[in-house]
Amino acid sequence: MLGGAAFILALAAVRRTGLRGMSLTSLARGLRPLFGLGLVIMVISGVLIVLSMPFKYYLNTAFRVKMLLLIGAIVATAWLLGSGQSSASGGRLRALALVSALLWLGVGFSGRLIGFL
User: Fold this and answer.
1) How many other C-beta atoms can be found within 10 angstroms of the C-beta atom of residue 41?
2) Into how many domains does the chain fold?
3) Which of 16, 63, 91, 93 to pair with 9, CA 20 to 30 A apart?
């Protein structure tokens, strides 16, 4: 839910239009609750998973990288959600959307690496 909302918004921001006649502002407003709910679910489940073996996760380099990328991805996506309502320039909005999408991809990739490192 969280990744889907983030990627839909990022892709729409790169195109600089909404989806199917919906403006970027309306899309951002509609995705905000999905992003928030997905974030809450992800944080609760993530904390429970880490509490099962805290030292294993804390000492894992991929886990640390994932947490740093996650913070960046959340900030970038929240900023993108807010930029949908402002009159941000097309270049800045596209760059922010690209950074957001790449950070989320990094979160997923580093999350997969946790079991292997």
Assistant:
1) 12
2) 1
3) 63
